[in-house]
Design goal:
Length: about 400
């Protein structure tokens, strides 16, 4: 009896090579959404399954849900990202993090007679089912399912033990994936806000090499009007400006890793075009004890082009100040530095019409001078809106 139990336990174990491969594939998938497919495909092979499915979002209301499935899925290819429309499966409301099979929930005759089996499973060669609802912080329960055809073997205690052994790694991989996605979404939102405020941002590593730049920075650097990239490094056009720029960047690098990062330095960059100087601020990026050295972000250079046009949303400005479309267009032209006469010409309207619009704008915004109007427009949230 003991010998049989030991043999069964041994069968349920993965080889070191198998375990290493599946765990590596799960954590690779946590870092890159596209790699969930190879990870699930390897699980399909490991369990001799015809399908392995990870239901990322259960259906609710009009939301059809979302799942990743591997196997011979109709619709092209072996890997499909698809909606998950099944709201009445017999596997709902299972205890979290507990592996189950069909046999745990119902008899074979009940399974064959269920509408879910008849309308969904039978036509796709699904008969044996093993699954688990995985709890993840902040993302609820994700549904993991492994299936075999009727001609295949039932899921054994050894299969269940293998699934239970992988469950902690699958849960952690999903948790890491969710956290990284959330961080990426927040990062993209902040980067969008910086760009909408017409602030250029260049990220430098400890050697001074440019690691990243936003679209506003790319436009400024591509123009070569005051700042440019030479040999992968940020430089100013004029030697005197460049010496000062390199000095404050070196000072930032010297403070990299220090506890007090509150000190920032600023300078003005002259432009060959004769336009208003570029404003530059250099700030140190907090270092990580786990990721120091070259290739890591060490400083951020913020650049403001005072002559650049405002990216304020006309729709948002219209809603914020209850302006008409014509009034909004005029207010934005004035915000971009045009005089009333220049704005009228740009909008192809009469000067008297522009003056009438301006009086109405003053009344609605509560300001009395054009300079005040420009100030409230520039300081409003209109630039942060994605509306056109």
């Amino acid at each position: 009896m003991e010998a049989a139990k030991a043999a069964s336990l041994e069968q349920s174990r993965f080889s070191l090579e198998q375990f290493d491969r599946i765990v590596c594939s799960l954590y690779d998938a946590a870092l890159d959404t596209k790699l969930w497919a190879p990870a699930l495909e390897y699980l399909r092979e490991l369990f001799a399954a015809n399908y392995v499915t990870l239901i990322l979002r259960a259906p609710e209301g009009v939301d059809m849900g979302l799942m990743i499935a591997v196997g011979d899925v109709e619709g092209g290819g072996r890997v499909n990202y698809m909606s998950y429309p099944h709201t009445t499966t017999p596997f709902v409301n299972q205890p979290a993090d507990r592996v189950f099979t069909v046999e745990d929930l119902m008899s074979e005759s009940e399974w064959r007679g269920s509408s879910y089996y008849q309308h969904w499973c039978a036509g796709h060669g699904v008969f044996h089912v093993m699954g688990v609802d995985i709890s993840t912080p902040g993302a609820g329960k994700l549904r993991f399912r492994i299936t075999r055809p009727e001609s295949g073997a039932k899921f054994s205690p050894e299969d269940r033990a293998r699934c239970e052994a992988l469950l902690p790694h699958l849960r952690r991989a999903l948790q890491i994936h969710n956290q990284l996605n959330r961080s990426a979404s927040l990062g993209a939102m902040y980067a969008h806000a910086i760009s909408r405020l017409s602030i250029a941002m260049v990220v430098l590593d400890e050697s001074g090499k440019v690691l990243d730049q936003n679209l506003i920075a790319k436009e400024i650097l591509d123009s070569g009007d005051g700042l440019k990239i030479v040999g992968g490094r940020l430089e100013a056009t004029y030697p005197s400006d460049n010496r000062e720029l390199q000095r404050i960047v070196r000072n930032a690098f010297a403070r990299y890793g220090a506890e007090d990062l509150t000190v920032t330095e600023a300078m003005s960059i002259s432009r060959p075009s004769g336009q208003v100087n570029l404003g530059v601020v250099v700030e140190v990026v907090p270092s990580s004890e786990w990721a120091e050295g070259k290739g890591q972000p060490a400083a951020v250079v913020y650049i403001r082009d005072a002559a650049g046009k405002s990216l304020a949303s006309s729709a948002a400005a219209k809603q914020l100040f209850n302006l008409t479309p014509a009034e909004t267009a005029l207010a934005l032209e004035l915000t971009n530095g045009l005089s009333l006469e220049e704005a009228a010409e740009a909008l192809n309207i009469r000067r008297n019409t522009a003056r009438a619009h301006l009086r109405s704008i003053f009344s609605k915004t509560g300001v009395r001078r054009q300079t005040e109007l420009v100030r409230i427009m520039l300081n409003s949230v209109a630039a942060l809106s994605k509306m056109k």
